[in-house]
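Final paragraph of the annual report: two paired records, presented back to back.
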Amino acid sequence: MADEGDKDAGKAKSGPSVLVWLSALVVLGLVAAGAGGGMGIAIYGMAKKSAMAQAESAPAPEKVEKYAAGERMFTLPSVVTNLKTPSDIWVRLEGSVIFTGTGEGSREELVQKIGGDIMAHLRTLKLSQLDGGPGLLHLREDLNERVRLRTGGQAREIVIHSLVIE
């Protein structure tokens, strides 16, 4: 009988088998994966509803200003020049000028002069002045002002098609 008592005592000390631990681990892993997936779906649904609500409550975008019947667009010659600082950086600008109404003189001559003005302006700029969106916005405003001055108000604006800095 002493042998039977020792056998029972040995079984009590060994604890659950490895198979029980692995099955518990798998079950807990599945529960965690299900909870994580459920939270992901819930968050995605809330974000989608929030985006739809913002889109509905946002004001309607302004209409794009159309060109009037008397306005014409003239393509500028490509302007390629280097910057003031650093002088080994080159800029290429392509664009168009929008003229309003009828004006005196040849528009082609004015477009050539505008190209020269743009080149002169680009040569005075530093690379830091063209950095990012605000830099491009300031460049566009400066060029629009130069175009209006050069044409005596005949040109409405300059449209920049491409600006490459290398």
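The closing record of the year follows.
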Amino acid sequence: MTFEKLVPNVFYVDIKDGLKFFVDCLCFTVGYSEIESKNPFCVLEKDSLRIHLFQNAELANEHYPEFRLETKNIEDVYNKVATSHPEFLHPNLKVITLRPWTAKEFALKDKQVGVIIQQW
């Protein structure tokens, strides 16, 4: 059995919040869009990653996912985010920190999701 990707589904009360976080802040692009439909949905892409965003208030209120994005250039990512969208820096890990498990990390959060940016 072989898997190649993990593609998370993330639910927002208002999908526009997810677009601001993932597209505007983290530079994902919209690969597929049903944003204007009765049940707004889109697929976001960056490099070999995909995230499915859904607008669904009921599910958004039940879930607060957290996941990690690994990079080889954490300083570049941090500088871009800290300059363009500092409001997304997580108050508990708002600067690049060398963790005991030897990874450098900083964290982001918006209304619906937590993301740890990590470099091994």
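Helices lie at 15-25, 57-62, 74-84. This concludes the annual technical report; the extension proposal builds directly on these records.
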